[in-house]
From TrEMBL:
Residues 14-90 form the HTH rpiR-type domain. GO terms for biological process: carbohydrate derivative metabolic process. This is SIS domain-containing protein. GO terms for molecular function: carbohydrate derivative binding; DNA binding; DNA-binding transcription factor activity. PROSITE patterns: HTH_RPIR, SIS. Residues 140-278 form the SIS domain. Transmembrane segments: none annotated. Pfam families: HTH_6 (PF01418), SIS (PF01380). Keywords: DNA-binding, Transcription, Transcription regulation. The lineage of its organism: unclassified sequences, metagenomes, ecological metagenomes. The keyword Transcription applies.
Length: 299
């Protein structure tokens, strides 16, 4: 077999970002600052020059060259190539988005605010689906299906999303639990979990201490850790087996959870799809029991 046939397949941008995240803690401070910006704003890599990206990251252009070499590339252009390739590949978008936003902005009252919110919210959801790695999401779905227990942990605005995920998911899939259970501490629940179980931990900046502690304990107990957060350099992401990032910034004074909702609903869809007939039968039985008990109003 010749050398050409043995050449490794080119990295995807997601694989390259994983490589950056794995190397993050070993980088020098300036190179780490460049890596953090690239991990948080990967969409800039393809469209900005090296000098522009360096300025956006607050580092010198040569720092990007050092970053590329630190993760195994000969130079910055080699690191940038996967991002440029994916930008030029065919994709999808909202074709009428611009015209709709212009109509909203022309409204007499609060039109600009409404346009800003619409643009922000549509952008968040669109970015989630653009960034999702289908293979990794399917891997996580199948891991949850095979796990005896999956704990889902979020605090603040993410707590009701954790409960909703478990409520809806448990119609079809057993073993889903929103943490903490029984009014205890999350680490108490994780202390009863072990190898083969899954922890889904969700947090945005400023990152909550209890989430970080939970992911570290889960990692120590050989639990598969799935982190949903806003940055690949978030402390709980560094301890995770799988990381999904969702944008959270909006014109408002709080982080948006729309991206998390989109991600969790997609994960549920993958779980049901891969569970074959069992999930459909479980959902049907769930509603049959409720109808028999008179839970629903008959129309």
């Amino acid at each position: 077999m010749n050398a050409t046939s043995m050449a490794p397949a080119p990295l995807s941008s997601n694989e390259l970002l994983d490589r950056l995240a794995d190397a993050y803690n070993d980088l020098t401070p300036q190179v780490r600052q460049a890596a953090r910006h690239m991990l948080d704003r990967p969409e800039q890599v393809a469209v900005l020059s090296m000098r522009q990206l360096a300025e956006a990251a607050g580092v010198k252009p040569n720092t990007l060259v050092r970053l590329a070499r630190a993760v195994g590339f000969d130079g910055y252009d080699d690191l940038r190539d996967p991002f440029r390739h994916e930008v030029t590949a065919p994709g999808t978008s909202f074709p009428d988005k611009a015209r709709w936003l212009q109509t909203l902005a022309g409204a007499e009252h609060h039109g600009d605010l409404l346009a800003d919110l619409a643009s922000s919210n549509l952008g968040i959801v669109e970015q989630v689906f653009e960034d999702l790695d289908t293979v990794e999401l399917q891997t996580v779905a199948d891991t949850i299906l095979a796990a005896p227990r999956t704990g889902v942990f979020g605090v603040g605005a993410l707590l009701p999303l954790a409960r909703h995920f478990c409520y809806v998911g448990s119609m079809a899939v057993p073993g889903l639990w929103a943490l903490p259970t029984n009014e205890g501490l999350p680490i108490d629940d994780i202390g009863r979990m072990g190898a083969g179980d899954v922890l889904i931990a969700m947090t945005f900046a400023p990152y909550r201490t209890e989430i970080v502690e939970a992911t570290r304990l889960a990692r120590a107990r050989d639990i598969t850790v799935v982190t949903v957060t806003d940055s690949r350099t978030a402390p709980p992401a560094l301890d995770a087996d799988h990381v999904f990032t969702t944008p959270a910034e909006t014109p408002l004074f709080f982080a948006s959870v729309l991206g998390v909702v989109a991600l969790l609903e997609t994960l549920l869809a993958f779980m049901v799809a891969d569970s074959r007939t069992e999930a459909a039968e479980a959902i049907d039985q769930f509603h049959q029991h409720r109808r028999a008990a008179g839970v629903y109003v008959e129309e």
